Amino acid sequence: MEMIKMNKPIVTILVFLLLSHIAKSQTENVGIGTNTPDNSAVLHVSFDAISGPKGLLIPRMTSLQRASIPAPIANGLLIFNTDTNQFEYYDASGTSWLPLLSTGNITLNSGSILVGDATNVATPVSISGDALLNNAGVVTIQDNSVDGSDISITGEVNGAISYHDGTDWIVLTPGNDGDILAVNSGLPSWQADNSISTVLTAGNILVGDATNAAVSVSMSGDILITETGLTTIQDDAVDGSDISLTSETTGSLTYFNGTDWIALAPGTDGQSLSLAGGVPVWTSASGGGNLNDAYGNGSAITLAGGAGSVVINGSLDSDAALEVSNSGTNGIALQVNSGLSRFGNSYTATVASGDGDLIVDNVLEVGGDLFLPNILTDGTSNFYDIFVKSDGKLFRDVSSRKYKDNIRTYDFDFKKILNTSVKEYNIKGSNIKQIGLIAEELDSLDINYLVVYDKQNNPDAVHYNRISLYLLEVVKEQQNEIDLMREELEKLKAKVK
Fold first, then answer.
1. What is the overall mean pLDDT for the chain?
2. Cα–Cα distance between 194 and 188 in angstroms, integer?
3. How many CB atoms lie under 10 A from the CB of residue 85?
4. Which of 126, 140, 420, 475 has the highest CB neighbour count under 10 A?
């Protein structure tokens, strides 16, 4: 057996421990560096009696050396692990070594937290799943991560819904079958469904019955309705009792004033209905007699003359309802403003002092001259051309700037007039030969200003007085060409010389 050499310090420690063991049997506690160990401590270490401060050094070892400690290992056995740089103690209940203290700061990745692993060791991990954590400590719940299974509100039962009461989300218990959700004082509540059904027979309407219930019925009587909402008043449904007009009295008449139907108050006995400004009015006849009486008894009647009246003279023939005397030189006179327009059997025209229009619906046949004072002027050469429009009105042809607006050059291919030709023809119903142009040919060439169109916009006549305007432009263009040819000719003559 090999002898173990021991140096002096070791011998001193062993002697000290031996003495301590002897002291233990007397005091049950040991003091190192003190002769008066604390009574509450089994081992009391002090550096008061030692040269300089010193600490207590726990056995140091690696994790591999720790694993070589023979079993059974005492519960609470303390070591210092040089691999992990921390104190560790043995947990006999878990048969594992647990960290006690560390000599340095614990390192932890940004945004990670310490979570115990399967071996009960604190392990740094990052939060994932429904919530995230950043290194500032802010926790964020992920989008769509909270579902119904995560929510729990007091009072929740099958079919309950939740609403916010201004402070918190609370549960609204289910209503009865058929109830509807309505708002009461700003809060939702269940109530009986009193709404009207949307099922309704085509063309029917909902009408409240005697029990205040909505009943489907079809409209009948004076008005009908279709399924598109179109209402129709039945024929003869509106009678006099259905009409009411403001100011209606016994004997009133109705007329339309351009906006509405209004009542015309009754006239007095003997008055007749006439128009004034297009509106019916009651008037009293001046003079005497009745036209019906005059026609029935064969006697003549005279209505007193005056401004705006009609004067009828002569004796009534047995077969005439109205006869106007054609004797003398008066004929028929029509008063227009301050002027007098006359036409008759033997009337000699004089210049009237006023203005008036004569409109003939069909044919005007004049036995002598037709005098139009606003058309002709003094002098044999100073006169207007007179035209008849398609509506039968006569008008004068004027050319002064004072009568015209938007004066501008007419841009047109005037040479088109050369594509037509003079035709010889007979007017239907006559054997007299004439020459002229055909309105349809001019229309087909788009020479519209030379064509007179009827009311149906069909070519009907030709403005012969305007043909010279087209020919003027053609002559001007030809003259320009002649001038150019003369200029070229003069240049050729100059070269020949």
1. 76
2. 16
3. 10
4. 420
Residue 382: pLDDT band (50, 70, 90) is low
Residue 396: its pLDDT value, please? Answer: 72
The full DSSP string for 422-440 is -EEEE-TT---EEEE--HH
Euclidean distance between CA atoms 245 and 168, whole angstroms: 64
Contact 144, 124 (CB under 8 A): no
Q: How far apart are the first and last CA of the chain?
A: 161
Using pLDDT thresholds of 50, 70 and 90, give the confidence band for residue 13.
low
Q: How far apart are CA 266 and CA 282, in angstroms?
A: 8
Among 281, 260, 256, 259, which residue's Cα sits nearest to residue 271? 281
The answer to whether the CB of 123 falls within 8 A of the CB of 105 is no
CB 60 within 8 A of CB 87: no
Query: How far apart are the C-alpha atoms of 246 and 263, rounded to whole Å?
Result: 7
The one-character DSSP state at 483 is: H
Torsion sign across C-alpha atoms 446, 448, 450, 452 = positive
pLDDT by residue (tens digit) across 227-272? 888 999 899 888 888 888 888 888 888 988 888 888 889 988 878 8
Q: Strand pairing partners for 208? A: 214
The DSSP result for 167-233, as a single string, is SSEEEE----TT-EEEEETTEEEEE---PPPS---TTEEEEE-TTS-EEEEE--TTEEE-TTS-EEE
218, β-bridge pairs: 204
Measured distance CA(45)–CA(30) in Å, rounded: 8
Which run of H or E residues covers position 339?
strand 339-343
Q: What is the CA radius of gyration of the chain?
A: 64
Distance between CA atoms of residues 325 and 329, nearest Å: 10
Strands 253-256 and 86-91: unpaired
Answer whether 397's CB lies under 8 Å from 384's CB.
Answer: yes
What is d(CA 19, CA 13) in angstroms, rounded to the nearest whole number?
10
For the segment 42-51, the average pLDDT, to the nearest whole number, is: 78
pLDDT value at residue 292: 53
Question: Length of the chain, please?
Answer: 497
Backbone angles phi, psi at 211, to 5 degrees: -95, 15
Write the DSSP string, 82-106. Answer: TTTTEEEEEETTTTEEEEEEESSPP
Name residue, tokens 């009651």.
Answer: 282
Q: For 13, phi and psi rounded to 5 degrees? A: -65, -45
Quote the CA–CA distance of 469 and 421 in Å, as a whole number: 17
Residue 466 CA to residue 387 CA, distance in Å, equals 12
Q: Give the pLDDT score at 476.
A: 92
